[in-house]
Amino acid sequence: MQAGNIILAIDDDPDDLELLVSALENDNVDITCMTAKNAKDGLKLLWSLDRLPKIIFLDCNMPGISGKECLIEIRNDIRSRDVPVVMYSTFATESDMEFFRKWNASFMKKHTDFASMKSDIMLTIEAYLMNIRNYHERSGKR
């Protein structure tokens, strides 16, 4: 059974994935972090869930299916198209940023130190969860 707010993290780098998961689960017991080591596994996991994740953190640069291709798959699926996606990488070009805007995703810079990564992740999650709560309160949805 999945408890709390589900966050899906998709990244081919085990060190980056471990840093992301540690930042997500540290001090926040209401988050269940699910992971995938590549886009193919991430899509399979996403589409198998009974409850969609509140947020997907998606590495931009992965072998096989890239982060951008994975984002397109997520947005083209009727069930997952509205799930917030945070693309992340060590850098992004203006062309990348235009692509993310076009496909309704935000961008977060990857950090190599835990404190900076945790801070950015927690700010991102809090902002998204606050927006989701506000939407449900305004619309009367649960």
TrEMBL record:
<dbReference type="InterPro" id="IPR011006">
    <property type="entry name" value="CheY-like_superfamily"/>
</dbReference>
<dbReference type="GO" id="GO:0000160">
    <property type="term" value="P:phosphorelay signal transduction system"/>
</dbReference>
<dbReference type="InterPro" id="IPR001789">
    <property type="entry name" value="Sig_transdc_resp-reg_receiver"/>
</dbReference>
<protein>
    <submittedName>
        <fullName>Response regulator receiver domain-containing protein</fullName>
    </submittedName>
</protein>
<keyword id="KW-0597">Phosphoprotein</keyword>
<dbReference type="InterPro" id="IPR050595">
    <property type="entry name" value="Bact_response_regulator"/>
</dbReference>
<feature type="modified residue" description="4-aspartylphosphate">
    <location>
        <position position="59"/>
    </location>
</feature>
<dbReference type="Pfam" id="PF00072">
    <property type="entry name" value="Response_reg"/>
</dbReference>
<feature type="domain" description="Response regulatory">
    <location>
        <begin position="6"/>
        <end position="125"/>
    </location>
</feature>
